[in-house]
Amino acid sequence: MIRLHHVHQARSMRSLWLLHELGVDFETVVHAFGKNLRSQEYLALNPAGRVPALEIDGKVLFESGAITEYLCDLYPESGMGRVAGDADRAEWLVWLHFAETVTQHVAALTQQHIALYDDTMRSPIVMKLEAARLGKCYGALDQRLHGRKYLLDSGFSAVDVSCGYAVYSGSHYVKPHAYPRLAEWYGLLRERPAFQASLPPEGARLYAQDFYPVPE
Asked: What is the DSSP letter of 205?
């Protein structure tokens, strides 16, 4: 039994997308964005009170990067991971964890634009800094994609899912179109059926707007 605890468009979308790519049977428990993740019942699954949490074969995993590594090891035939000794193993690990570097900047922007409920709480300086840092991450991905269709020489993998989710969420604050290789890669990812299946239903979005501009 695999059960994913999920908030639409949050980091758990990374795990949801990967599960769809793997083609395995699983259940999804959808939570609202907010304080309900602080319940004692949920904290027993993820002590940080965040998503994702993955229940699998009597175990509970949290942290999306760890979930990605575990699932790719569990289903090596999927080709989503790169096993120890594979020529792309080191790069697979680097870009898997780089996805969280990107997402940290997205999380800071989400806090500023969405989680804080009053304009007096928001910092234009923080928003500008984090948007600039997110742009630098886009630049690193764009450079990596020079001469490559996907992030690894050996083709599509879970690192494209992980970094692809980071760009998907980040695109609400910094559009990828200024980075041509990144934009082309991201366009390919958006066409994947597993990506489409991980999108929220109408009316259930975390991001109420398609884009949140940096304040002047």
From this structure: -
Q: Where are the beta strands (DSSP E) in the chain?
A: 2-6, 27-30, 53-56, 59-62
Q: Are 29 and 206 in contact (CB under 8 A)?
A: no
Distance CA 144, CA 185 (A): 11
% pLDDT > 90, the chain: 94
**What's the average model confidence in pLDDT over 78-89?**
97
3-state secondary structure (DSSP) of residue 4:
strand
| Total residues belonging to the chain | 216
Question: How far is it, in rounded angstroms, from Cα 95 to Cα 152?
Answer: 9
Quote the distance between the C-alpha of residue 22 and its chain's center.
Answer: 16
Handedness of CA 16, 18, 21, 27 (dihedral sign): negative
- Residue-wise pLDDT tens digits, 116-163: 988 899 999 999 999 999 999 999 999 999 999 999 999 999 999 999
β-bridge partners, 108 = none
Residue at 164: amino acid letter: G
Encode burial over 102-120: b for 16+ CB neighbours within 10 A, e otherwise.
Answer: bbebbbbbbebbeeeeeee
Pick from 68, 79, 93, 62: nearest CA to 18 = 68
CA–CA distance, 201 with 210 (Å, rounded to integer): 15
* CA–CA separation, 68 and 21 (whole Å): 12
Q: What tens digit of pLDDT does each residue of 161-202 get?
A: 999 999 999 999 999 999 999 999 999 999 999 999 999 998
Q: Is the distance from CB of 194 to CB of 131 less than 8 angstroms? A: no
